[in-house]
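Write out this protein's structure.
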Amino acid sequence: MDDLATADNTELSGVQSFFNDLKINDRLYGLPFRSDGWALYYNKDLFDQAGVAYPGDDLTWEQYVELAKKMTSGSGTDKIYGSFMPDWPQTWYSYGQQLGSSLYSDNLTPYVEGLKLRKELSESGAQPSVAENKATNAHYRTAFLTGKYAMVVTGTWFPGMLEQDQKDNKLNFNWGMTYVPHPPGVQKGTTMTAVVVHAVNSESKHPEEAKKWISFISSEEGQQIVAKYQTPASSADRVKDQYKATFTNDAVNMDAIFNIISVPERELRKGITQMNTIATEEGELALLGELTPEEAIENIKKRREQEIQ
């Protein structure tokens, strides 16, 4: 797609920031269609009732854990949890990604800290354990809607879900949204992003027509259409305006979606699928208490060498 990226430089300016992370051997094989980062969502009513200030836009992960503990109260069916995160490995390995580290590097120390903090949330009671989530088939959307979770960390597709829930009268509290937490020393707004791309199969019978479609849907005009239905990849002003117009709730924080410093959620390289499986399995063993975070990270390193050829 290098020729398209060069020829349509102006039309594709809104998605250009993703190009470097989408290249393989310095060549671009796809154009961004949509993109999602991560953000922090919170129940304003619970914070008001507790007399605690809403989460700021520059929280470290360490501060997030302490705030989650502070917002946790009660027991049994009356318990209010400070935090809910999906059981995805991204919720702990984001710590290393935000620091510019790589799960493929020799030094995986930053990921140990991320896993420790994620584990601390559950062990302190500020968040349900992985075992509890599995037993109840818990989901961040349904959990947040119960009104018993002060904060949820998940993707920037969530506002679209909450907009629909509000229309369906399933959302019965005021909510807010801000930047995802980050490690100390990392600039606020730094978030992992997962970019969905369109590409052309090398055996396509209509490659030129496919490339024409791809260049259109990634252009500013095409991205305005995407913005009516999901999070666009483009950061062009008209695209952002179209996206904002789809919401009736002013709680949607446009800066936390578009004014970000993007780091890749998954590295586009050989073994991407295997690495996700390895991180998921080893991280879960640590969160279940069957391994220490240090052991889990060491296992990731060993399995990486064995399973990704």
